[in-house]
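for the writeup, i need someone to sanity check this before i put it in the appendix. the sequnce is what the collaborator sent (i think, or maybe the updated version? ugh). structure was predicted straight from it, no edits. if anything looks off just tell me and ill rerun, i have time this weekend
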Amino acid sequence: MTTHQNALEPSIRKQLLEAQRNEITEHHIYKALSETSAFAENRDVLAGIAEDEKAHYAHWREYTQVDIQPVQWKIWWYLLLARVLGLTFSIKLLERGEEQAQVVYQGISEQFPSAGAIVEDEDRHEHELIALIDEERLRYVGSIVLGLNDALVELTGMLAGLTLALQNARLIGTTGLITGIAASLSMAASEYLSRRSEESDQDPVKASIYTGIAYIVTVVLLVFPYLVVSNFFVALVWTLVNALLIVVSFSYYVSVAQDVSFKRRATEMTAISFGVAIVSFLIGFLVREIFGVDV
């Protein structure tokens, strides 16, 4: 294969070396994910894809005659994502990276017709991965969205209104925390009763737990600034920044895991939450002026 190596243009050789690095890195990622998967079917599919990636690496090595080491931090990163955010999120994010690699393969397909077969392999991987995915957290993502959205809308609105009405950061934070925890229990109970009345494969208890936890976590993140900052306007700004970060983070997670539009979901959640906050802020101002509240 020395003739292949000598005949390669520098730009093409660079692309092939990058393709090698991607393939061997993805081989190790899929292999590691297969070893940590709890389900035999998932392990078999992931192990099979890992072997395909290794074969792709070996194919390009015939042309470059160079051994390439995997990118270790990527392996650790995707394993961490799988443990924290789930297998679905991890492998779908990885598949997005493979889509970029397919563009490179299509660009060199005229000189290397075998690149087309590799692209077909990558497409097959995507279909296999979509077919195998069945994670509990994704089956209950609707319950998580319910708790998170409700907490965002209610708490940002309430905290904004209380900020002008009470003008005492610690009092606002304490009121928000008590109200938020009570509301999370109420929302969890409502979700339980709602699931019990529906014909669904979802466990009502698990659905209520996911809703309640999402609500409480959101409450803590939104109320926290009022408990550590004495200036109530600074606390309000911090709370709104936290709300925006929650919206962006969760919208990105859902957009990757469920293949939906990130921009549309994030814009919708932000508009609703901040719209309610602005209206509530104005109501708090009017209440203070009309009733002469002074704390």
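The first helix runs from residue 2 to 7. The chain has two domains: 2-134, 137-291.
thx in advance!!
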